[in-house]
Design goal:
single chain; 282 residues; alpha/beta; Rossmann fold; N-(1-d-carboxylethyl)-l-norvaline Dehydrogenase, domain 2; 2 domains; eight-stranded mixed sheet; 8 strands; 46% helix; binds nicotinamide-adenine-dinucleotide
Length: 282
């Protein structure tokens, strides 16, 4: 099976959905971008325009590529039929399940649904679908245009044809795809949980400020420190991932969510996307 979607729908126009739309459009696909929040898909398009024109001004891509990429992304006000849907909505199993049920009423039976979930069981998300074999995890990393890695996540019912087809597509988009069975947190997020958790524990112990923790880890060779990385990811998303991994590991204490992060979410300090997290953003 070769996946060369003439109609590609990205659902969720937040950090990840906008990045996925950009990468797909840059690879030559026409992309429909939908978000449940009125105006969000248009806002994402406007933000993409700003960042692509910025890249063109810096000479990182040509103005023609920037213009062509933008022209291929069309914000839409309702879900549409498509050959491939990439779901990048909120990290919430019930919300994703409800969306898939709506999509199945619209999609042809052979259409593929890829979920960008960071941590929710693809096996469990597929349960209840009319065609569970067409659901596969396609886990991009943030920022999507920059990060090469993609985890292709197999649920128990995922068709090998579907998994291989999305792998091939991701490679054509310049990504490096690795395969993982659907276990809590998959590969990267499982390993990364303690990285965030220990930084949050240090903060809870008042051992050091975020700036100091980040500076230490950068000096140790990490590209970003854990606090600035959590600000980039979004604390709402990161907390949802931690809760999902904690629950899926039968409440193993190693994955206990942090009160520090819960407080940030409760305050609406979600990180870069809300203008404030551990740090403030202009
Ligand atoms: P985000 O908060 O930036 O964006 C989510 C968007 O989904 C919002 O615009 C929201 O309005 C929209 N939305 C919510 N419910 C919807 C629905 N039912 N239908 C349509 N749109 C809906 O979140 P994000 O960071 O882009 O994360 C999206 C997904 O990608 C999550 O599953 C997350 O775990 C995963 N992910 C996030 C990161 C990251 O670093 N932030 C990395 C990899 C994967």
């Amino acid at each position: 099976m070769t996946l060369d979607p003439a109609r590609l729908l990205v659902v969720g126009a937040g950090l990840m959905g906008a990045g996925i739309a950009q990468v797909a459009a840059q690879a030559g696909h026409d992309v429909l971008l939908f978000d449940a929040r009125a105006g969000a898909a248009q806002a994402a398009h406007a933000q993409l325009a700003q960042s692509l024109h910025g890249l063109a001004a810096k000479g990182k891509l040509t103005t023609e590529v920037a213009a062509a990429t933008l022209s291929r992304i069309r914000p839409v006000a309702a879900l549409q039929p498509a050959d491939l849907v990439i779901e990048a909505i909120v990290e919430d199993a019930d919300a994703k399940r409800a969306l898939f049920a709506e999509l199945e009423a619209l999609l042809p039976p052979e259409a593929v649904i890829a979920t960008n979930t960071s941590s929710i069981s693809v096996t469990a998300l597929a349960r209840g679908l009319r065609h569970p074999e067409r659901l596969v995890g396609l886990h991009f990393f943030n920022p999507v245009p920059v990060m090469k890695l993609v985890e292709v996540v197999w649920g128990l019912a995922t068709s090998p044809d579907v998994a291989h087809a999305v792998t091939d597509l991701a490679s054509r988009w310049g990504k490096t795809a690795v395969h993982a069975r659907s276990t809590p947190g998959f590969i990267v997020n499982r390993i990364a949980r303690p990285f965030y958790a220990e930084a949050l524990a240090l903060l809870q112990d008042h051992a050091a400020m975020p700036e100091v923790i980040d500076a230490c880890l950068r000096a140790a060779g990490f590209r970003m420190g854990p606090c600035e990385l959590m600000d980039l990811i979004g604390h709402d998303t990161n907390l949802a991932v931690t809760k999902s991994v904690f629950e899926a590991n039968f409440y193993d204490r190693r994955f206990t969510p942090s009160l520090v992060q819960q407080e940030l979410v409760d305050a609406g300090y979600l990180g870069r996307k809300s203008g404030r997290g551990f740090y403030r953003y202009p």
